[in-house]
Amino acid sequence: MNALKPVSPFRLCSLLRLQKDPNLALSLFQNPNPDACSKKPFRYTLLSYDLIISKLGRAKMFNEMEQILLQLKNDTRLVPNEIIFCNVIKFYGRARLPDHALKVFDEMPSYRCQRTVKSVNSLLDALLNCRRFDKMREVFVGMEKYAFPDTCTYNVLIHACCLNGCMDDAWVVFEEMRRKGLEPNGVTFATLIKRFCVDLKMKEAFKLKEDMVRFFGLSPNAYAYSSLIKGLCGVGEVNLAFELKEEMVKNNIKVDSAIYSTLISGLFKVGRKDEVSGVLEEIRINCCKLDTITYNVMINGFCKLKDFEAAYRILEEMADTGCKPDIISYNSIIGGLCKDGKWSDANDLFQDMPRRGCIPDVVSYRMLFDGICSGLEFKEAALILDEMIFKGYVPHSASINRFVDGLCQEGNINLLSRVLKSLGKGNVIDREIWMMVISKICKEEKLSIVPDLVDTLVGPN
């Protein structure tokens, strides 16, 4: 029988690309030729390192990724590309691990890799994801040791200022960028426009849109249009929002489902729900598939209008079109029904969720619990509470206090005792509940049950 042909460095890269499971990819990388008799070390390539590091980083297997990085550091045959470290920094930024990102950046020279503006920008972006604005300033000030800032650098800094709501600082950065001979691009203006739209300063946002076209020769991108349309809908200027959508079409910028969802939400907000069907028809004509977000916007809009029959129809339409309703779909209806005092209908939908392929979450339970308590159906509320505690969920503290107060007012000491035992299991009995219960017991002269209640409130030793 012929022996298996050893895996070559080139073949290893091909196998790593094909392997979807990061654990199996790691095993393959660490031992590409398990049956080989030769003691000669395997000669890894930069590409194989890049592939396995990327797979581990995406899977957030950071301990394993760091082991591979250490191996790369010790493999002195190779001089790693900067992109490898840019990716690692990005992975740490997405995982909200800013100190790890900083450490990798600082250690790049020990890997024989020179830092340039690309790795600086990756670090700034990672720190931005982690909201470490103090460190961003520190990195920017010290970057002249190894790189000069480019437009991307300033875009990240402007984004940080906008996230902080510091528009004056954003303009200072913008002017510094211009003084250094760097031209703003579409991303620069889209970031500034979004901040104005978030603050509902639509006059300033449209002035900036005009300036970018007139003075810089730049056309707004989809991101800028999305912000403007959302801002217009936020201030009730739905007609202008639709005009802007038409401008997008004229400029050959794709109108996606997120834009249509914003427009639909805007129509509901100004009481023009009858026009929603026209938007849906346009979506279908433009071959833009309705997604869960768009359906959820409609469900939420109908629930706010207390048109629950329409909301249920949307839920059924989702299932019919193969777009599976998610937890937000159900919670929107449950929350709307509970606010309208229809807790029984809400409970029916809640109980039907598992059959529909969606498991209630803590928000589902809390909304239903509050709705049942508002309906003064304390026995039903106690059952929901038991189920919540069993699943590791607890109502909001204010909801618990209102529930216990309602039980005290009703005078059902047996149910009160049962509820307190459930709350004790969840370790959510506070001083306010204690004082409320003791006061009630003293008024009712039910002192004989005090020892049992004390045991419940104090809990096991």
UniProtKB/TrEMBL annotation:
The protein's name: Pentatricopeptide repeat-containing protein
PANTHER family documented for this protein: EXPRESSED PROTEIN, RESPIRATORY COMPLEX I CHAPERONE (CIA84), PUTATIVE (AFU_ORTHOLOGUE AFUA_2G06020)-RELATED
Sample GO molecular function, one term: mRNA binding
TM regions (residue ranges): none
Keywords in alphabetical order: Repeat
NCBIfam families the UniProt entry points to: PPR
Pfam families (alphabetical): PPR (PF01535), PPR_1 (PF12854), PPR_2 (PF13041)
PPR repeat coordinates: 81-115, 150-184, 221-255, 256-290, 291-325, 326-360, 361-395
Family statement: Belongs to the PPR family. P subfamily.
Keyword flag Calcium: no
InterPro entries documented for this protein: PPR_rpt, TPR-like_helical_dom_sf
